[in-house]
Specification:
The chain has 4 helices and no strands. The protein has helices at 21-34, 38-52, 54-62, 67-80.
Length: 81
């Protein structure tokens, strides 16, 4: 059973970054295997990593929330559901 499932429709923002070729090949292979776009796989994986980081969560709680932080937190929670 695939870990990654299709995400619900949500507002998206383009982000560009480079990854190692071997990882890109694995991402392509996994995307084909689960029939989910690579961008959705990357978004789900990043959301999981960020949501699992307890130190990061603690640091965010100690800072006053800005509008962009609140929106990002809402998007991450919506995507994690």
């Amino acid at each position: 059973m695939p870990i990654i499932k299709r995400r619900p429709k949500e507002t998206l923002k383009a982000v560009m970054f480079r990854i190692p070729e071997e990882l890109a090949a694995r991402l392509t292979e996994y995307s084909e295997f689960v029939n989910v776009p690579q961008a959705e796989i990357a978004a789900t994986a990043l959301s999981h990593v960020i949501d699992s980081d307890k130190d990061f969560a603690a640091s965010r709680k100690s800072k006053p929330a800005s509008n962009s932080d609140s929106k990002a937190a809402g998007s991450a929670k919506a995507g994690a559901a």
